[in-house]
Amino acid sequence: MLDVDSERFLSELHELRQFGAAGVGKGVVRPAYSEADVAAREWLIGRIEAAGLEPRVDPMGSVFGLAEGHSLLVGSHTDSQPEGGWLDGALGAMAGLEIARAAKEAGGPPVSCVSFQDEEGRFGVTTGSTVWSGALSLEEADKLTDREGVTLANARASMQHLAGDFVEPSHFNGFLEMHIEQGPWLEQAGEAVGVVSGIVGIRDMRITLTGQQNHAGTTPMHLRRDAFQGLSAFNQRTNDRFRDVVTPQTVWTIGHVRLHPDAHSIVPGQCVFSMQWRDGDGDRLLRMEEIIRATAEEVAQDFGLGLDFGPMLGLEPVEMAPHLRKALQESAETQSPGRWRDMPSGALHDATNVAKLMPAGMLFVPSIGGISHDFAEDTDEGDLVTGLKVLAGAVARLGQAR
After folding, report:
1. CA gap 133, 119 in Å, rounded
2. Could you tell me which of 13, 352, 320, 364 has the C-alpha nearest to residue 180?
3. Per residue in 307-349, pLDDT tens?
4. Count of alpha carbons within 13 Å of 398, Cβ hemisphere only?
5. What is the pTM of this model?
6. Would you say residue 1 has pLDDT above 80?
């Protein structure tokens, strides 16, 4: 068992929270490449140096703390949603630092840590680790834009004073990531941790419906080409058509809608919206895509609208590595006998991308009220420490098996 310092871990987790602290409670606003995000990464580099690890920042802005030689990689991310909580990603990144430092203090096993950039998707889907995995080239990533039209190339310029080359994945023999559950199941069951069995696949794209902007008082309803009415019909029809395809675990979301000109007395001439869907079965994701595209085309024809599909972003479902799951399960049973479970992840994580490069495993701790992506996000600090100790126990077991 590695001798982790839980007080040091919690203290640094709270210190990180001050970068971008906002809203009520423990809210954080720290989107990728924002001033708060860059300052937090500079602070993290200082903590990595103080731990005796080698700090490295790749061209995307992901921050690594490297141990000597071939090592296990442990971490997550430190960027946040536009309105986020203090633990989403930050928990796993700071747990990675604490375990890497404790392992160095103990003389091994060698452990490196990481905070990947833009996991929360300001510019895509887990952008930093996607580029690191080779699934997306840096040149193509640079063309991505956020909701305000800012390119990733312009945004990441804020970190170029820190950036060097990409870290070779061959430096690592596996990856572990701890995260809040972001759901209700562990807390409702009174359980301490969840060992992740696999991560769902995700698809995400923007759809644009273009009609005719017109006067809201004088344009008869039957002559309107109202882009929002097209969206309304699309939403109803896709929900109806998904019924025979999806399972209770399948989810889909229209999460962002932009109307033009977005005025009270004008029939909307354009509607741009996001469509995202998630499932653990790749074939089901494809079938849902077919329904989405066919329904959008049908709606466009029925309402006299133009239609454009943006780039398809997404990741395939992945299973966690059996030997890493076993180490986490054994450690969970030691730390919290009978108070853990195997469970899938309905949320996307950097581990999805890293699993393309090396064996990957994940551990969840409870979320109070199942709340995440909100200022109210929180976890009891006793559960945070339990998760840290379970993760450390798994790392120690993996070190003994080397």
Report:
1. 13
2. 364
3. 999 989 888 899 999 999 999 999 999 999 999 999 999 888 9
4. 30
5. 0.86
6. no
pLDDT of amino acid 208 = 98
Structure confidence by residue, pLDDT tens digits, 236-268: 999 999 999 999 989 999 999 999 999 999 999
Give the contacts of 301 (CB within 8 A, at least 6 positions apart): none
- Transcribe 118-182 into DSSP letters: -TT-SSSSSHHHHHHHTSS-HHHHTT-B-TT--BHHHHHGGGTTT--PPPPGGGEEEEEEEEE--
Residue whose pair of structure tokens reads 């063309």 in the numeric block: 143
**Looking at this protein, which amino acid is placed at residue 38?**
V
3-state secondary structure of 264: coil
Tell me which residue has tokens 């469509």. Answer: 275
The answer on pLDDT for 54 being more than 90 is yes
Where residue 108 falls (left for φ over 0; alpha for ψ -120 to 50; beta otherwise) is left
Residue 383 near residue 192, CB atoms below 8 Å: yes
Which distant-in-sequence residues (6+ apart) come within 8 Å of 83 by Cβ? Answer: 22, 23, 27, 29, 373, 374, 375
Residue labelled with tokens 């896709």: 238
